[in-house]
Amino acid sequence: MEASMSRNYFLTGITELLILTILKHQDSYAYEITKIIQQESLELISISHATIYTAIYKLEKENYISEYSRTVGKKRVRVYYHLEQCGLEYLEQLSQNYNHISKGVSLILESLNQ
């Protein structure tokens, strides 16, 4: 598997975690979420807008997040996303799962790379 393909496959699995974490701190729109991920990761993580929107639509369908519109400027409307209470609970579950998997992978890598 090509390195960029495997990297993208891995990132797809954590996109929901990143989106929900951002929304826990502030309501955001999709482009802003993409930029926050890129900036906060010191540009080590770059997730496509298509991947962000796919995850957002899934989270919204499952009622973990909701959307509302806000007028920006004279005519432009921007769609913001908001974390709902059940989304916060889902985020806690995702965070625990991520931490367990991350710790387990680290332990394996440390053990086998000695």
From TrEMBL:
Residues 19-92 form the Transcription regulator PadR N-terminal domain. Gene3D superfamilies: Winged helix-like DNA-binding domain superfamily/Winged helix DNA-binding domain (1.10.10.10). This is Transcriptional regulator, PadR family. It comes from Eubacterium ramulus ATCC 29099.
